[in-house]
Amino acid sequence: MAYALTLLTLVTLPFAAALAIAVLHQASRAVHSGIAAGASAAGLVLLASLAGPVIGGAVPSATWQWVPTLGLDLTLMVDPLGLMFAGLILGIGLAVVIFGHFYLYAGEATGRFFASLMLFQGAMLGIVIAGNVLLLLVFWEMTSLASFLLIGFWQHKAEARQGARMALAVTGGGGLALIGGMVLLGIAAGSFDLATILLRGDIVKDSPLYPAILTLILLGCFTKSAQFPFHFWLPHAMAAPTPVSAYLHSATMVKAGVFLLARLWPVLAGTEAYTLTVTTVGLVTMIFGAVVALFRHDLKSILAYSTISQLGMLVMLLGFSLEAAALAAVLHILNHAAFKAALFMSAGIVEHETGTRDIRRLGGLAKAMPITAAVATLAAASMAGLPPLGGFISKELMLYQTPKLALLGLPWLLPVLATVGATFSVGYSLRLAGHLFFGQPREAEPHARAHDPGIGMWAAPAFLTLLAVLLGLIPMLLAAPLVGAVTGVVTGAGVPEFDLALWHGVNLALILSLIAVAGGALLFWQHRALLGLWERAGLPDAKRMFKATFAFADTWVRKAIVATHTPSLQRMLLASFGVIAFLIVDGAQAGGALTGTRTLIPASPPAIAAWVLLIAATAAVVNDARNRLRVLIYISVIGLVISLAFVQFSAPDLALTQISVEVVTILLLLLALHLLPKNPPYLSAPSRKWRDGALATLCGVLIGGVAWAMLTRDPGASISAFHLANAKSGGGGTNVVNVTLVDFRAFDTLGEIIVLGIAGLGIFALLDSAATGASGARLRAWRADMPLSPERHPMMLVMASRIILPLTLTVAIFLFLRGHNQPGGGFIAALVVAVAFLVQYLAAGFDWSDERLPFGEHQLIGWGVLVAMATGLGAMALGSPFLTSWFDYFSLPLIGKFELASAMLFDTGVFLTVLGAVMLALAQLSHISQRAARAAQSGEGRA
Amino acid sequence: MMSYEFLVASAIGVLVAAGVFLALRARTFQVVLGLTLISYAVNLFLFASGRLVIGRPPIWDKAVSNYADPLPQALVLTAIVITFGMTAFVVILALRGFLESGSDHVDGDTVPCDPQDGMAAKNATVAPDVEDAQP
Question: Which residue on chain B is closest to A938 by alpha carbon?
């Protein structure tokens, strides 16, 4: 664990930078890019401190437990492969940040841009130094999300949004497959720890799960690395700002798939299925990308398809399952990162300075922008694989390996096809440089504007191109130790013997290379004629196919949803009630007597009278449902009887709650009825009523039966005894119900007040927007359908309510304060206060009361939840579990002995939230009726 | 002789029956009433799971050893308040649905309301807004 702090700092730095930039999003462009560059540079320094030991053979790693039951640990590990990729991510990241600073204009949302970029950097860094495959998945998904944000950076452009969606759909979908593959891999290997898995390659390859593992992991890699046929998202991702394309879509993210293939090589590679699949996919992608790239006109599109082609080559090389091919792949990863990022930045410069990326409008730019031309031409030469550049060496190595694998049993097939791919690579590279910088300008306007940018913009691509050149001139000095160490880790077989040089004598690779260069020159020379042929061919458009696939899936999903999830509340409720009835009948099959042996309590005559009242009121509700105002009276009778039942059965807190909720509910329904139709016609046919009646009766009998069976049996042992025994000594209160709410089960209560708060806010959202659109028109067209009292605010009621207000508030405070020891508490007090205020609304009108209301309902809800949470967190700060309560007794002169409990503070939170939610619901409703009534009045006035 | 247990069990049964019947109706207001009745029944049922006890509220006292079960009471207390939240939300949802579509049918079927009743069908379709049209 010697490196624990370094590793942790390395991976958290970019995220910290992203957060800092997001917080400072108002600051200037220089602040944003400064933070990003600083973080990248600091990361590079940290990484450099690890480089020596890692190349020397040490593997710095550190583990923290995260979710041990799932096998998910926070394990970080830097081996040579991770070191190389981390170096690319941070180094090119730094170059891109510097370039991006000058590329973006000062007025753009640079905070969002650099924050997303740093988020991506952290995620990508996480992938390459994760030492646990589940952790790797977490970072993998994060790169997809960051890529989505960055591609869609210019939100106002439709193509940016579409490109972002497409990239997310493809790479995110592949990510899902990868999750499956990784979990199976962990099961097959018996561990999710990467180092352990890599040692168990033989176990995995012999596992019956291997085919599934291979398929799923390859899906993840191929989608991420834009392999055919999942390549199409990459060209559309070019809607991103050019620094993003240079960073994500050439140097780093698209290489994540290649990285994973290399990472899991010891576990997956070597089998026939692997070699055949990976080689073929890579080969097809290489040729396909190269051919298409030759015929694109947008600079970034050319580069995108060339990236697809080059990624194909890397995948193919890894597919060979040969050590020397892996070495070629490792070297080419370095080469490609250097020249492709430089080319993307050059394309960005050209667009920035000429206003276009269409190669058909440009040409002869070498005179106007000589530095850019020199940089880009050298980089393109490396891409073409021309000596004496780095690209030449890795391409030679690739061609040298091709005869070693007999594809379809034909030893000549692979060399030929690889040469075809290389030929087209030379072709598009020549065309890119040739049509852009040499010859005559095709259009005057872009050419007239063109000039070299300041050093800030060309420094980064120039540096990368310099690297590409040096990788060709002094490869042994510059890259050999790293490439050797990385190859040793990839194959798991130790550092190989090798020699990197431009000249290896005349061999097959050199001949194939010469053929490719000659063929490429021919393609460039005949480009116009070939373009004509290509355009006449009318090939399918991947974007249209993608859209059609999605539309198809959408249609069928909709049909499936409608088929299984009937859009009819009535039918769904019928099914739900039917299932409930069935479950009870099914449970009753277990047998046992309906009536238990508990001694029953004889009912008193007043109780029987109340019961009769309740049954009669319930019947009246059903029978008289059309007269909605009268129904409300019946409902309140039922609520009253239930409150009395709570009084009778030793539940004073419930009785207080029920009666105050009853008042509030009836007020709410009254207000709603003001706007709803009051005497609707019957809708149900008699047959349906009989059917529903039968089901309802069945449900009633069954549930009544269950209640009877329960009530006539003695209860089993429960945890209630604990609550009774500990309420006073542990919770500091004698009202066990209240202590349960604010102490024993305070977490439940916290959840419930949050739900209540959300319901209040939901009501606000539903009503606040009701004044617009169709519902607004209906509100304005509203007419009172019942005679209104000529006296809007009766004097008696107004005066009485004002006298009652302070009395009610006093009662509420009393109920609140004594709640811990006697019936009362936050819930009840809040309801009483709400009733007190609502009476003011009722008596004096909405405007009068709302003006005088000393608080906002939203704030009440927010403060309530915050106070309750803070009480809980306060306990944690003192070292106890969340929501542990504290109490003690004090004495003051005059007042005497009194108790202070943190539960009281929690109850205050409950009080505030409940009050806020209730007031918000009713105040909003009365506000909207008020508006309707006012509109109706003014309408009558005009008429 | 009638027992309290019978009164409570039968009240629960009757409330459920009425609630289910109303919840299956086609008008939003009736469905709300149905849910209200079912909520009463459910709260009573939960409360009854602590069994019926008379005259022994769960207020701790040194001298008393037998209490009504406090746990169902605490659960039902919050349930009552949550029931209010739910009822309020459903009522407002129904109201907004009615304002939006001009029908208070639960499945959004445009069955016109009684012309004598509140927002009559003919009023509801008043599309051009006179107030807003004037500058």
Answer: B131
3-class secondary structure, A67: strand
User: Nearest 10 degrees: CA dihedral of A363, A301, A388, A453?
Assistant: 50
Percent of chain A past pLDDT 70, that is, above it, reads 97
A560 Cβ under 8 Å from any chain B Cβ = no
Q: Chain A contacts of B29, Cβ < 8 Å?
A: 628, 672-673, 676, 680
Q: Is A636 on the interface with B (CB under 8 A)?
A: no
Inform me whether the pLDDT recorded for A677 exceeds 80. Answer: no
Residue A888 backbone dihedrals phi, psi, to 5 degrees: -160, 165
Domain boundaries, chain B: 4-101
CB A768 within 8 Å of CB A894: no
Q: Which of B73, B116, B132 is the best substitution to test chain A (most A C-beta atoms within 10 A)?
A: B73
Query: Are A798 and A806 in contact, with CB atoms under 8 Å apart?
Result: no
Contact A704/B at CB under 8 A: yes
Q: Residue B106: phi, psi to the nearest 5?
A: -65, -30
Check pLDDT > 80 for residue B114: no
Q: Do A598 and B51 touch (CB under 8 A)?
A: yes
Q: Which of A601, A719, A767 sits opposite B54 (nearest CB)?
A: A601
Q: Which of A765, A755, A916 is nearest to A826 (CA)?
A: A916
Burial of B123 (0-12, 13-18, 19+ CB in 10 A): middle
Compute the distance between CA of residue A722 and CA of residue A745 in angstroms, rounded to an integer.
13
Task: Reply yes or no: is the peptide bond before residue A388 cis, omega within 30 of 0.
Answer: yes
Q: Average pLDDT of chain A?
A: 88
Q: How far apart are CA A422 and CA A401, in angstroms?
A: 14
In this complex, which of A631, A653, A696 lies closest to B73 when CB atoms are compared?
A653
Using one digit for the tens of pLDDT, what is the confidence trace for A584-636?
999 888 878 888 888 899 999 999 999 999 999 999 999 887 788 889 999 99
Question: Does residue A715 sit at the B interface (CB-CB below 8 Å)?
Answer: yes
CB contact under 8 A, B81 and A827: yes
State the CB neighbour count (10 A cutoff) for residue A558: 10
The continuous run of DSSP H or E covering A74 comes out as strand A72-77
Q: Where are the alpha helices (DSSP H) in chain B?
A: 4-23, 28-48, 70-101, 121-124, 130-133
How confident is the model at residue A607, as a pLDDT?
Answer: 93
Phi/psi-derived region of residue B108, left when phi > 0, alpha when psi is between -120 and 50, beta in every other case? left
Distances (CA, A) of A744 to A719, A721, A731, B90, B129: 11, 13, 8, 31, 57
Chain B residues lying within 8 Å of A607, measured CB to CB: 4, 7
Which candidate, B67, B102, B5, places its Cα nearest to that of A775? B102
Banded model confidence at residue A475, pLDDT cuts 50, 70, 90: confident
Chain A CB contacts of B63 under 8 Å are none
Reported as a single tens digit per residue, the pLDDT across B89-105 is 999 998 888 888 888 88
Q: Does B33 touch chain A (CB under 8 A)?
A: yes
A869 burial level (CB within 10 Å; 0-12, 13-18, 19+) = middle
Residue A483 three-state SS: helix
Tokens representing residue A408 in the block: 């379809």
- Of A143 and B106, the structure prediction assigns the larger pLDDT to A143
- Interface with B, mutate which of A615, A683, A926 (most B CBs under 10 A): A683
Task: Give residues with Cβ within 8 angstroms of A896, minimum separation 6.
Answer: none
pLDDT band at A742 (very low <50, low <70, confident <90, very high): confident
Query: What residues in B contact A823, CB-CB < 8 Å?
Result: 57, 59
Taking all residues of chain B, what is their mean pLDDT, rounded to a whole number? 79
Mean pLDDT, residues A82-93: 93
pLDDT > 70? residue A733: yes
